[in-house]
Write a structure and sequence with these properties.
five-stranded parallel sheet; 209 residues; three-stranded parallel sheet; single chain; 25% helix; alpha/beta
Length: 209
């Protein structure tokens, strides 16, 4: 018996009647103080770090995420980046646009079997990336809060001891949520410790890099 309305079409006088919000935007944020009947916020993302503090810390308000449903799509994007670089597709596309014949040299290309991937974050997205990397014949290592073993990862490390593995990783992926521990974790010192030839892919929050 709920009435469903698009938020940008709702009458402002009805803000006080809203019990459930699906999604989030500036219009919702700016009129939050008028929604005194609000019980549930369902966001379209896995992370909730962009939500106001009064939403996150309200014990009477349920907040739910879409954790897990983006795993396949994000994994495909990660491997699009990897293959785009490793198979010289970026250079080839540019040459195609310029209508020139400009072959990519063999020295610029690489294959994935035997390469080491280090994934920071072993949740749903990290696990799906690891599964796909294993299918490509890569060695996959993970990083999580306590170093516990996770399926599809040959070995997992804690945030504290992961840095000693950086110089052995050919591809480093950030799939971590943004927390006090992960904010600015990928800093100048981190990149200095990485293998000079490694590829870094961030599909986590920008604030961690």
């Amino acid at each position: 018996n709920y009435e469903v309305e698009w938020f940008d079409q709702i009458n402002p006088a009805d803000y006080s009647l809203i019990e459930i919000i699906f999604g989030w935007n500036n219009q919702v944020k700016e009129n939050l103080d008028q929604m005194n009947q609000l019980e549930w916020v369902q966001v379209e993302s896995a992370g909730v770090d962009y939500l106001p503090k009064e939403i996150i810390e309200n014990p009477d308000l349920m907040v739910s995420t879409t954790t897990g449903i983006h795993a396949s799509a994000i994994t495909e994007s990660v491997f699009a980046y990897i293959l785009g670089k490793g198979r010289g597709l970026y250079q080839s596309l540019k040459a195609q646009e310029d209508r020139t014949w400009s072959p990519v040299s063999a020295q610029q290309l690489h294959t994935l079997p035997g390469k080491c991937m280090l994934i920071f974050g072993t949740g749903n997205i990290g696990q799906e990336i690891a599964r796909m990397a294993s299918a490509f014949g890569m060695r996959v290592r993970g990083v999580n809060t306590n170093g516990r073993d996770i399926e599809n990862f040959s070995k997992c490390y804690t945030l504290a001891n992961a840095r000693r593995m950086l110089n052995t990783a050919h591809i480093v992926v950030n799939a971590m949520p943004l927390t006090n521990e992960t904010r600015a974790y990928f800093n100048r010192k981190f990149f200095a410790d990485m293998n000079d030839q490694a590829l870094f892919i961030n599909i986590g929050r920008g604030g961690s890099v």
